[in-house]
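Consider one such protein record:
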Amino acid sequence: MQSANMLLKKFVRSSVLPFAAQHGMKKDLFPVSRTLSLSLCLKQDNSCSPSEKLDLDAWKKVMKSGLQEEVSETVSEHKELSTLAAARETLEMWRLAGRSVPENISEEQLKTFMECPSKSAKKKYLRYLYHKELYKKNDRRKMDEKRERRLETQEQDSKTDETRRNSFICLWASCMDRAYSWRVAQSMIFGQPLVFDMSYEKDMSIREVANTVRQIVLSEGCNRRSVDPFHIHFCNFKDDSLYHKEFVKHYREAWGKLLITATDQCYTEVFPKDKLIYLTADSPKVMKTFDHDKIYIIGSMVDKSIKTGVSLARAKRLGLETAALPLEKYLLWNAGAKNLTLDQMMRILLTLKDTGDWKAALEFVPKRKYCGFVSRPVHELKKSLNLINTLKLGKRQEELRKQFTKNYSKKLMQK
């Protein structure tokens, strides 16, 4: 055993240690040689006879293969780092050239980019990363803008709170609220009724019902601030309907204190039929003057698809009188439907009730729907429009005749 240990030490000193020193691994091999010598000294195996010899050539091959694997791993790591750096440089050049390249790219994304089979696939992958980065930037920008708007609103709310602390403003606001409430309370006893027909829930989507309730809330606010408000009635109104849920969402605790009349009965059961007039844009009868003795009905419906004839059919089915606003009589109407929002109808009716002036009332029609007010009688305007159309038609016929003669002469020449 001692002779084998001596042979091992000589072999390590003569052959392995110079090889390790050449490759910079001498420090790592000292504990290996020491452990090998100690293991051979301490090992006392009865099965091992003194005649057996240590296979030093095989041990040498194993050591050389381990060193080669470590050297190959370091070389492969250096190659991979160099290729990644080269890929980053090419991406930087493409970015400077104006191509769609992301600003920040991770090592995994860079490896997948290098593994792409073709140049077009690499371009598509880079374009995907570029758009993804743009979406993230836009989302971040939108979040920052929302945060800034929220801070601005908070600052404005704080400023308004400071102004509200002023005793005079608070007293004025409370007095005006009481005055408005007193007027509405008087209208519930002596005022002219105005009916909102709440039976169109099945004809609308949830979003359209929400828009309808929002317009009715605006109408109630306009009526409340008016000098002579209407007594608002919600007919065909059910407690478990979408209308009720949206009203509770808007008014909250004030819904129970609202000075209106809500009933699940039809307006024909509450009021006499001879006093009811259903206002609809599809009516053939045009409203000439505002009648203070009549009760006007407005259909609580907002339809994006503009379902024509729904309210007119309902009024005819109930045997009620219908009327439409004289929009074409007073306005040079553009192409489009003559449907107005509920708050616009409320403002028009309130102005007619107070002044009786159609021109002042129709000022609440959106300016995009008409060119201006009619300054001449309607029959004169119709005559001028008919004359313009006939002149246009005559010019068109002359152009068609000239074109026909030209084509006919060409055909004759070809024959």
